[in-house]
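Section 5.1 Outputs to date
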Amino acid sequence: MTQTLLPLAGKAALITGGSRGIGAAIVRRLARDGADVAFSYAASRERAEQVVAEVEALGRRAVAIRADQAIPAEVAALVRDAHAALGRLDILVNSAGVFVTGMVGDAEADLAAFDHQLSVNVGGVAAAVRAAVPLMSDGGRIVSIGTTGAVHVPFPGVADYVATKAAVAAYTRGWSRDLGPRGITVNLVQPGAIDTEMNPSDGPFAATLKGLAALGRYGRPEEVAAAVAFLAGPDAGYVTGATLNVDGGQSA
């Protein structure tokens, strides 16, 4: 009887922000596809350990590492520790992020929160990629999680957030040029409305966002993870510098 080889068998992946929501779904999917995984978490060790247990139940190695994505030194240490724990690094998924809203010019706006958002959503991604590239195998994969709001902003109050994701989109295109000679692909997945704690399907933006989607519903974290798995896998070897929208037709 012939055994089917999983598409990511023998690969090692690091996912930032992998203890909940989209990040946790990506961890589970890459492990299901055969990869050993390391992932970062910010606060809840209990949640991280639960994800580790789920991955280990699949027969894969898993390690959870606490790291603050706003602190470049901690991000660099995260990458080094993941590489040391797994013995190699083939895939980096930048999923960690925060979502802070507020109108420009609002005298009551929390400017420190906006600055922290910039540090996490842009600085944390750049720090992870810079630390990973020297350790990554040739032919590796880098995938970042953005938002369709970086291209089309559907409502007010999110300018600072979508600007951080637009920066990651630009980095993606630039890094694809830098890393192309090594066969490392760099791509971006832009979700629309996905049912997570950050943006629940019964939350304050739900009616608006459902109405914008051609499919008329929120997406599931697993649907974003499927797109990441494709870009991380062998069938996407000629895809780089690209943006893949997973938004139910919101951008149509």
